[in-house]
């Protein structure tokens, strides 16, 4: 099954950014060590739109701002159903594997740090999440976004099957 990426325009969107992780990277040259920073940032409007970006620079603040700009270029729309996800989803990226499960109202976001940033930026308020394998924040963020991209709402399921929306919930 191929998933279509649902791109979103950035105009007139109020996006909030969350810093997931900062890495200090060292490059050894004949003149000594050169330090730079790598930041992974998640942006979202907390209403179904999310994006992540990677920024690299010699200073932390510039790395974060570059990450935010990169994230704004990669926004996607995610289906949310009553503050949670429509169905269970499993996804992988690299060595990281994530499992997302819908939860009843009032449960909250039960997820690790990197997954929590993505899920809260989307606007999901109730979900159970588990991360298996690699704990690398880059891979976890990308696996979580892949899981969210594979989610389908009832309308798209009905359209794909060629049936009415009411028949999706019956049988």
Structural description of this entry:
With 171 residues, the chain is an alpha+beta fold. It is built from 5 helices and 8 strands, in the order E-E-E-H-E-E-E-E-H-E-H-H-H. A 4-stranded antiparallel β-sheet has the order 1-2-3-4. A hairpin with a 2-residue loop joins strand 5 and strand 6. Helix 2 (113-122) runs parallel beside helix 3 (137-149). The model has no long low-confidence stretch (mean pLDDT 87).
Secondary-structure topology with pairs:
Blueprint: E1 16-29, E2 32-44, E3 49-57, H1 60-72, E4 76-77, E5 89-93, E6 96-102, E7 109-110, H2 113-122, E8 127-133, H3 137-149, H4 154-161, H5 165-169
Parallel strand pairs: 7-8
Antiparallel strand pairs: 1-2, 2-3, 3-4, 5-6, 6-8
Choose one word for the global shape: elongated
Q: How many DSSP E strands?
A: 8
**If you average the pLDDT, what whole number results?**
87
Please give the count of helices: 5
Q: DSSP strand (E) fraction? A: 25-35%
Structural class designation? alpha+beta
Radius of gyration: 18 Å
The percentage helix is: 25-40%
Question: Main sheet, how many strands, which sense, barrel?
Answer: 4 strands, antiparallel
Strand order of the largest sheet: 1-2-3-4
**H/E topology pattern:** EEEHEEEEHEHHH
Poorly predicted tracts of residues: none
The N- and C-terminal alpha carbons lie at a distance of 23 Å
